[in-house]
Design brief:
The chain is mainly alpha-helical. It has a domain at 29-106. It is built from 4 helices and 2 strands. A two-stranded antiparallel sheet has the order 1-2. The protein is elongated and about 45 Å long.
Length: 120
């Protein structure tokens, strides 16, 4: 979703690449939290406890995306489409790993950590 919003905003001339990256980040983050919380990880953690952790994870993702946009646009002077591999591959993998290992990891009463995914 973020990659699509990014391309749409830049292609329509509504935002420069870095601004489009940040603007597209906001709705994508809200949707991603809802889907990951309810379906992907089926977390037993209270939403309030998970949302701030997810925000941290997504800010790391935004940093990766912004770094990609800066690299592609400013340093390499390539078109904005070249930032998409960061948004569609690297960032989702990083945020998924953080989400699985920290954000949505549940702790049982006996102190053991449990991470579920929809496949479990």
């Amino acid at each position: 979703m973020q990659g699509g919003g990014y391309v749409l905003l830049v292609d329509l001339g509504w935002a420069k690449p870095m601004a489009a990256n940040v603007v597209a980040f906001l709705p994508a983050t809200a949707l991603a939290f809802a889907v990951h919380y309810a379906w992907t990880f089926q977390s037993a953690r209270k939403p309030r406890a998970a949302v701030w952790r997810f925000g941290v994870a997504k800010l790391i993702g935004l940093g990766i995306n912004s770094g990609g946009v800066y690299l592609v646009e400013t340093l390499l002077r390539l078109g904005h489409y070249y930032a998409l591999p960061f948004m569609l591959l690297l960032t989702p993998l990083a945020v998924f790993a953080i989400s699985r290992s920290w954000v949505f990891q549940d702790v049982r009463d006996d102190g053991h950590r449990v991470t579920k995914t929809a496949r479990d």
